[in-house]
Specification:
mainly alpha; 2 domains
Length: 166
């Protein structure tokens, strides 16, 4: 090895060592690593949200997020849950087929729609693609809070700029 090659190797090794030292100072702290800013050793507690205290009949319907979205529950449901096979307090106000097709009167709850009285064709090949119309609420639609959600005072997690098509 010539003297020039040796000096070049020493200089290159020095540059590599110096660049590693500079890089080592730019470490990312563990609190900055994830989407949730905080230590990986902490268990953050989510904020508590309060659901509306408005009683049934005292609120207006909430806007739907999209055309076929199920309506949101605009009132408090603490006294109505859990919904069980023997108890569905929602039916006391909303099970009113006589109101189908009629304009909604002020202060009256919206009736459960006619579609909820059709038993889906699941497991009924003889029904084809059409469900069976019933006189009572379909068991598949019995648990209201599967689709209809009560609303809390939670701020959106991300900004939503969605605008429905006209």
């Amino acid at each position: 090895m010539t003297r020039a090659t040796f000096l070049f190797s020493i200089a290159a090794a020095g540059l590599i060592t110096a660049s590693c030292a500079v890089t080592a100072e730019q470490t990312i702290p563990d609190k900055e690593l994830g989407l949730v800013k905080g230590s990986v050793f902490e268990t953050p507690a989510p904020p508590a949200y309060e659901y509306t205290k408005d009683m049934p009949g005292s609120t207006k319907p909430l806007p739907r997020s999209y055309y076929t979205a199920p309506p949101q529950i605009p009132h408090n449901i603490d006294a109505f849950v859990p919904i069980t096979a023997k108890n569905n307090a929602c039916l006391g106000c909303h099970d009113n087929p006589a109101q189908w097709g009629k304009p909604r009167q002020k202060g009256m709850p919206p009736p459960i729609p006619e579609s909820h009285y059709v038993d889906p064709a699941y497991g009924h090949p003889e029904a084809g693609l059409k469900g069976k119309k019933q006189k009572t609420l379909s068991n598949a639609r019995y648990n209201c809070v599967q689709c209809h959600a009560p609303q809390a005072n939670a701020a959106p997690l991300v900004q939503n700029t969605f605008k429905p098509a006209k």
